[in-house]
Amino acid sequence: MTFVWTFTTLIVSVIVMIAAAACCTISWRRSGYSRSVLWLEVFRFLLIALVLVTLNQPEFTQEIKPEEQPVLVVLHDVSGSMQTQDVMNPQALAEKPKTRADAIGPLVLPELWKPVEARMKIVFEPFSSQPPTDEKGTDLNTALQSTADRFPNLRGVVLLSDGDWNTGQSPGTAASALRVRNVPVFAVGVGSEERLPDMHLAASDAPTFGVVNKSLRIPFRIISWLPADRDVTVSLTGTRGAKIEKTVRVAGMGQQQDTIDWKPEKTGEYSLTLEIPVDETETLPDNNRLTIPITIRDEELKVLVVESYPRWEYRYLRNALERDPGVQVDCLLFHPDLESVGGGRGYLDQFPAEKELFEYDVVFLGDVGIGSKQLTPQDCVNLRQLVRSQAGGLVFLPGFRGYQNSLQTSELDELLPVVFDSVYPKGHGSSRPARFALTEAGRRSLLTRLEPDDNENERVWNGLPGFQWHAAAQRAKIGSQVLATHDSDSTSYGRVPLIVTRTAGTGKVLFMGTDGAWRWRKGVEDLYHYRFWGQVVRWMAYQRNMSQGESMRLFYSPDRPEAGNVLTLNANVMSTAGDPLRTGTVVVQTVSPSGQTDSVRLASAGEDSWGLFTGTFVPTEGGQYKLVTSCAETGGRLETMIAVIGQEKELIGQPARVDVLKEIAQVTRGELTTVAEIQGLVTRIAALPEPDPVIRRFRLWSHPAWGALIVVLLGGFWTGRKLAGLA
Predict the structure, then answer these.
(1) What is the 3-state secondary structure (H, E, C) of 340-395?
(2) SS3 label, residue 633
(3) For the chain, what are the domain ranges?
(4) Are 482 and 476 in contact (CB under 8 A)?
(5) pLDDT in tens, 279-336
């Protein structure tokens, strides 16, 4: 037993003991030297002594020396970035640089750590990302934390890495925990902290689908870390078809974005390969090639255009869509000056009922509202269901009569991407033509891509003929994406939104805030007007037509699924009688590019969702996924291919992040070194002092049983005095 005493507590204890002994003696003498009083006073003295012992904090200590040998764990990074070839030999600069993985290869050989083996057990552990994420990345925190958890007798950690932490929690969390345990991390950084000469080919918003016999623009971006400008030839090769080439000028230490036109001649699943030649001065040739999966389908799009007056935008929009061989157009004209709905070739005599409406892929709503000779509330309900449950597209194309304002009191209000200003129901007109101003999202969007080159596309938009009227849209709603605004007019929320998109349920919505797009035909005929609206129609309808059968249809969201992100699956299922299936067992079996299978059970979206079943799953890798949808009640089966974009967390050519390794070493009281200095590190680790033994302390003074003992003794003393007749 030991005591945690101080000089003060010791002096006080001695004084109190002397005083207690004197008092007890006087009390015994006054009792006439009674035997019973003698025992009570002895009891009293012992009780006081026990209290004084408590004041000096008695405790039992036990020294525990580890029976097992201390462990030194060598963690070596095996993530994708370690394949970066940027490690130069300082003694032979003319030699070809090594990969980071090859540079640390000799450091994971047992022979190097022989001087340490006599005092520590050496364990070699590779790491990248850790289960259960299955992400391709570098998770430094989990690697350090799992090492600490698995080795209780851990003496130190040697971390061999480029520090490219890109997934998981901050490694500072695990570093702090290791510091508490007095476990140092010896970080060995590998790789260049500066970008080496390189040309990098990357995909930029590549499409995942296409239509047979229609040209596709395959965008690409070339990033240069070379000091001088280069003429670079980009080649595109498909699984079927000849090579297509395009030469672009790439500025030194800059980048260039462009597109290659490709026209698929057959339906099916394609794998397109983009490639640039290896420059003689670049050191990282592995990032000059990429593969893009793409699905090609036949096109059978059905479009409905609903309007009040046959204004110019309506006329040219109808003409453009009718000339498109892949689009079937029906029109409905609610002309208020006519006794009945306008008729003629290609015109409907009434708004379609629910079942007929759901056959359309895209609906254009012009200057149309709710009222007499307009839409009914039920029509609005059906349109809402077309978008939310049937993956249909809806385009709001308002006009200066302001009929569209009444839609804000209907079921369509939740689909509107913007909020109208009620003070100006008929919008704003001006004698001075205004222009569109693309936002950053608009510059990236395929919808507003009128020319393949970024600069040329910007030039075209700046040069488009202006418009003299626009709807009074105050602001875009939360969740909407603004692609273009008014070039000068603003509200209290910012520039007036003119082209706005949003996702609603399983479908898409677009708002065009002016009816002057037809003026884009000036000088170029139908080039840009037709191109824009053709892109809008296909953007809205492709998902709905990607995979469909007689009794079921499968579509998904988002449009461009990425590995690691949630993918929503939606299926419309018809019963054997041809009616929407209200309840049933709908299962989607997923097959990954590597062959792993999983099953997703889709749940019914409700009685009012017209046979919609929905569910989610997370693709774990990039490439072509096969989805097999089946329904137990109908016996239906549908096979679908989905192109998933892989997440490129581990980019070859990224500079090493030695700063991350330095912070880990500093927090844990370790050190940062280099591959060239590894022998010195081994020597210093071998000379580490033995860890202090573990001291286990049992504090009697603070234990509840100790306090209970004092209370019991006080009770016994009081009882004894009662029995002796002294109290």
Answers:
(1) CCECCCCECCCCCCHHHHCCCCEEEECCCCECCCCECHHHHHHHHHHHHHHCCEEE
(2) coil
(3) 2-64+696-723, 71-192+656-686, 199-297, 301-541, 552-644
(4) yes
(5) 888 877 778 888 887 877 776 789 999 998 889 999 999 988 888 777 889 999 887 7
Do 199-297 and 552-644 fold alike per CATH?
Answer: yes
- Rounded to whole angstroms, the Cα distance separating 623 from 700 reads 65
For residue 604, the tally of other CB atoms under 10 A from its CB is 17
Copy the structure tokens of residue 18.
């002397």
Query: Using CA of residue 210, residue 438, residue 442, residue 468, what is the dihedral sign?
Result: negative
Return the structure tokens found at 268: 């099916």
Cα(601)–Cα(79) distance, integer angstroms: 34
Structure tokens at 55: 């004041």
pLDDT in tens, 335-356: 776 666 655 567 888 899 988 9
Other beta carbons within 10 Å of 74: 23
Q: What are the structure tokens assigned to 499, written together?
A: 């082209």
Going by C-alpha positions, the residue among 257, 247, 260, 193 that lies closest to residue 224 is: 257
The runs of H, that is alpha helices, within 82-159 are 100-104, 114-117, 140-150
Closest Cα to residue 570, out of 552, 588, 586, 556? Answer: 556
- CATH code for the domain defined by 552-644: 2.60.40.1930
**587 and 630 Cβ atoms separated by less than 8 Å:** yes
> What fold, for 199-297?
Immunoglobulin-like (2.60.40)
**Residue that is written with structure tokens 């003295």 in the block:** 45
Stated as kind and residue range, the H or E segment containing 658 is helix 658-667
- Per the CB < 8 A criterion, the answer to whether 369 and 404 are in contact is yes
The tokens describing 580, both together, are 């929407």
**CA–CA dist 125, 409 (Å, integer):** 64
What residues contact 362, with CB distance under 8 A and at least 6 apart?
301, 302, 303, 304, 392, 393, 394, 395, 537, 540, 541
What pTM was estimated for this model as a whole? 0.56
**Domain 71-192+656-686 class in CATH:** alpha beta
500 pLDDT higher than 50: yes
Tokens of 49: 């002594």
Whether domain 301-541 has CATH 3.40.50.880: yes
Structure tokens at 378: 């039920």
Q: What's the CA gap between 644 and 261, in Å, rounded? A: 22
Structure tokens at 352: 């379609």
